[in-house]
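Quick review question:
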């Protein structure tokens, strides 16, 4: 479509809109209750507001965005915690090797060399670390809530003083 054709189409559309406005609102004062933005939206969009579900070009209604659920954080197992805590040391060890293994394979090899008691110690460390992080997260959330409550209280007091 050429620019000229597009401009012609826009002009025709605007003229159709103006014609409908003149017919529907003949004799009404712009800005009055009978001829304002709300009455125009109701007349031409039948109460539609952005964000409402609309049928698409193929007749299917748009899906409403799903409410995101907060994922429940799971603790690391001992193996993952072992790899995480020793990452720097393992990388240094791997750099000195002639044939560099894959990192995951190297961790697995080190983990498998540990005794059952050592593995259970790492499992306990992982559990304790997770619980500590959860405790810190809870405390931080409580602090944020306290600050928000304090700010709300101050705003309320300011409004009452005004």
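Suggested answer, residue by residue:
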């Amino acid at each position: 479509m050429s620019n000229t054709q597009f401009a012609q189409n826009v002009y025709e559309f605007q003229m159709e809109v103006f014609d409908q406005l003149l017919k529907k609102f003949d004799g009404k004062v712009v800005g009055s209750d009978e001829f304002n933005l709300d009455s125009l939206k109701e007349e031409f969009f039948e109460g539609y507001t952005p964000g409402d579900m609309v049928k698409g070009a193929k007749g299917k209604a748009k899906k409403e965005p799903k409410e995101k659920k907060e994922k429940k954080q799971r603790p690391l197992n001992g193996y993952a915690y072992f790899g995480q805590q020793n990452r720097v040391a393992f990388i240094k060890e791997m750099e000195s090797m002639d044939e560099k293994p894959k990192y995951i394979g190297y961790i697995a090899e080190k983990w498998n060399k540990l005794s059952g008691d050592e593995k259970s110690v790492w499992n306990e460390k992982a559990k304790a670390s997770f619980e500590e992080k959860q405790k810190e997260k809870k405390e931080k959330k409580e602090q944020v809530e306290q600050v928000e409550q304090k700010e709300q209280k101050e705003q309320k007091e300011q409004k009452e003083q005004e």
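Why it works: The chain has a mean pLDDT of 83. DSSP finds six helices and no strands in the chain.
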